[in-house]
Amino acid sequence: GGDPRGAGGSTVGGAGGSSGPDRTGGTTEPETSTGTSGAGGARDGGAAGSTGSPDAAAAETAVAPRDGGAAGSTGSPDAAAAEAGASTCPAFPATAPADAVTAITVLNNIRLAMGIPCAQIDLALCQASLNHCNYYAANASNSTCIADAHSEVSTCTGYTGASPVARVQAAGFTGRFFAEGMSFAGDPTRSMNELINTVYHRTPMLSPWTRLDGYGRATGCDTMDMSTGETTPATVTGFYPYAGQTNVPTSFNGNYEGPKPPAPATGKWPSSSPVHLYLRNATVGSHRIDADGTDAPLPHTWLQDGVAYVMYADSPFAANTKYRVRIDATQGSTALGFDWTFTTGAR
Length: 347
Fold this sequence. Notes:
Elements: E1 31-34, H1 77-81, H2 98-114, E2 120-121, H3 123-138, H4 164-170, E3 177-183, H5 188-196, H6 202-205, E4 212-218, E5 221-227, E6 238-240, E7 275-278, E8 283-291, E9 300-305, E10 308-313, E11 322-331, E12 334-343
């Protein structure tokens, strides 16, 4: 746990708007950026932070890791999910890098617990991710080279492409590039956990419709390039925290995600840890969250982030407390009801 600190990301091929990495306080900061391989503008034509296409709002995010127990701590969501057993997923490529296997296994343990399809490792995406972290590490002391953590400058050491799209293509990837996420932990497990307790970063990482990933790391850098991969039916649904999850973080500080999520009605952060519902082609009616057994709905923010609906209570959750979420929706002519509980950790 600790406070996340972020720097704005940028849409691939689109307008800038990112700041350089924030190294204050000894923390580190993940970032994400999205785009379509072979296209010059924002993915599907959406502007930065738009919600008109799957996961588009995740295009412009940045958060930071936690390292001291302050609001925004991640807890250990992957530990509780591990019992789901990522060994039930299709085997990774035999030559997949060990770091990528570790990172994507963390995600797949959670995806299985959510009841959504596993993600697969793509070797070209791994190479692009590794290339970019090598570039970042080689130029970490040169602000000209890393003024925008997602961009590379052709005159700097280790250059492989100015944008994430250019880099995955240079590494031999020919599919649809979806998103690039960065953290600066230099550790595959920690970086995945840090990125998950967010509003916008979580969306593509745990989306049922993002199923092909690459991961690479260097000193003080983690990069994850993502693609849609295999087709997932539009009728699939999923939510996080998943049903019965324990040790869920109590809080999230949106001041350190860029662009910032809408502030709680109080105007003050931190809020509770976010709750995601992945749901496509649907209309949502009622939504509520309360401490289980109290039947007293908590005031909360509700927003749509592409294929995900997100809610977070105005104030942090209480520690070691069970919460209940209820959401009603209609998908075509089908009425859907979601009703599940999860339990927070000590902080």
